[in-house]
Amino acid sequence: MKNPNWIVALRERQATDPDSVLSFVKNPGIRSVLAKALEPLKASESEEDRIQEILEGTREFPQLRNLLSEAMLKTEDALPVSELEAAVARLRDESIKRQAADLQQQSDEAEKRGDSEATGAFLLQLMELRKKRALE
To answer: How far is it between the farthest Cα atoms of the chain?
Structure first.
């Protein structure tokens, strides 16, 4: 199995900033696999050992296993490490957009119920999220 260079780059990024990657991955299965891939390697462990361990752990989840296998094997089409920052930024931006849409929906629902306290709280969270997005 090929050793994609993006794993090493993301692992280094995750080590210096733990919220930089995993916090934006909402799918629990993908998040779990990615968390395992991004853990620092043990002294006697190789990238290939780690990948094999992850693949064995996904036997009961064929869709996740197929997705992982495809990501590991398509190194020639993979995102170059030099473009990793832009990809992570897009991932972060999409995550914030989803959170904003959820907050807007919750605010609308609270307003329909006549719950002005909840509406205000949701709108405040939404404003903070939009501010965060504008600063990034």
So the answer is: 60
The tally of CA atoms less than 13 A away on the side-chain side of residue 4 is 22
Half-sphere exposure of 49 (CA within 13 A, CB side): 8
Q: Are 88 and 21 in contact, with CB atoms under 8 Å apart?
A: yes
pLDDT at 75: 52
Contact 27, 72 (CB under 8 A): no
Q: Which residues of the chain have pLDDT under 50?
A: 1-3
d(CA 6, CA 89): 15
Q: How far apart are CA 97 and CA 119, in angstroms?
A: 19
